[in-house]
């Protein structure tokens, strides 16, 4: 099927030349013969530049949103889906026929779909490293799966413990460890969250939302202790396909 109308899509973020989305959708448009469809990176240093993109980009039909704007973009949108409202973060924007901007969260869907096949009956609780926009979709997905979770942050708060509190007992209780921070993303591939990796076992799942590199230092360290590991590539593919569905409905 050939689509001959002109439509533009894009990714909103900061320092996103490495982005998965542009390659994914460009290839999709070529393979599925969507002629006149393009996908580009909107790389901005601060969210205040977002309204200018909307004003100056013709035929814009949909956007993905990545770090660090998943929460910051919300005040610029006209409405949110029920799930995006609950999650408090947006990674997909639909441009409605009336020219309104509606925010959705497809991260949670991608994460849920990619984690589910790994789960065993003993996987009851998860630690989420990081408290940024990406962590919110993860938390929502865990709630839908009936898995308890605790956030881990640099500073302890009502909502999170800090890294210094992680010990053998906590690792025994929490057997899914999820890195939702950008630590370890290319080019800084030597970096990894400062957690006691010696407490990983073969009962643990180590999940990193990062997909570049495919095996981060976080994943390598966990794998050495026998943990099952998973990177964020499948999550990205699933969330991208969900975004495509939203843009076309």
TrEMBL record:
<keyword id="KW-0057">Aromatic amino acid biosynthesis</keyword>
<dbReference type="InterPro" id="IPR036291">
    <property type="entry name" value="NAD(P)-bd_dom_sf"/>
</dbReference>
<feature type="domain" description="Shikimate dehydrogenase substrate binding N-terminal">
    <location>
        <begin position="11"/>
        <end position="93"/>
    </location>
</feature>
<keyword id="KW-0028">Amino-acid biosynthesis</keyword>
<protein>
    <submittedName>
        <fullName>Shikimate dehydrogenase</fullName>
    </submittedName>
</protein>
<dbReference type="InterPro" id="IPR013708">
    <property type="entry name" value="Shikimate_DH-bd_N"/>
</dbReference>
<dbReference type="InterPro" id="IPR046346">
    <property type="entry name" value="Aminoacid_DH-like_N_sf"/>
</dbReference>
<comment type="pathway">
    <text>Metabolic intermediate biosynthesis; chorismate biosynthesis; chorismate from D-erythrose 4-phosphate and phosphoenolpyruvate: step 4/7.</text>
</comment>
<dbReference type="Pfam" id="PF08501">
    <property type="entry name" value="Shikimate_dh_N"/>
</dbReference>
<keyword id="KW-0560">Oxidoreductase</keyword>
<dbReference type="InterPro" id="IPR022893">
    <property type="entry name" value="Shikimate_DH_fam"/>
</dbReference>
């Amino acid at each position: 099927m050939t689509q001959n109308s002109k439509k533009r899509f894009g990714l909103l973020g900061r320092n996103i030349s490495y982005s998965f989305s542009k390659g994914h959708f460009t290839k999709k448009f070529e393979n599925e013969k969507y002629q006149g469809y393009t996908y580009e990176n909107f790389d901005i240093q601060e969210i205040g530049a977002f309204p200018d993109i909307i004003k100056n980009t013709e035929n814009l039909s949909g956007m993905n949103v990545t770090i660090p704007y998943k929460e910051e973009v919300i005040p610029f949108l006209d409405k949110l889906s029920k799930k995006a409202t609950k999650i408090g973060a947006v990674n997909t924007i639909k441009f409605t026929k009336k020219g309104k901007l509606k925010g959705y969260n497809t991260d949670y869907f991608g994460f849920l779909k990619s984690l589910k096949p790994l789960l065993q009956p003993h996987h009851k609780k998860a630690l989420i490293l990081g408290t940024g926009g990406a962590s919110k979709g993860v938390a929502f997905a865990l709630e839908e799966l009936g898995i308890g979770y605790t956030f881990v942050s640099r500073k302890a708060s009502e909502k999170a413990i800090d890294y210094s509190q992680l010990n053998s007992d906590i690792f025994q209780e929490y057997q899914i460890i999820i890195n939702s921070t950008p630590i370890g993303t290319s080019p800084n591939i030597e970096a990894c969250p400062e957690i006691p990796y010696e407490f990983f076992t073969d009962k643990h799942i180590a999940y990193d939302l990062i997909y570049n590199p495919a095996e981060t230092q976080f994943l390598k360290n966990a794998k050495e202790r026998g943990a099952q590991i998973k990177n964020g590539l499948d999550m990205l593919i699933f969330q991208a396909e969900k975004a495509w569905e939203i843009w076309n409905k």
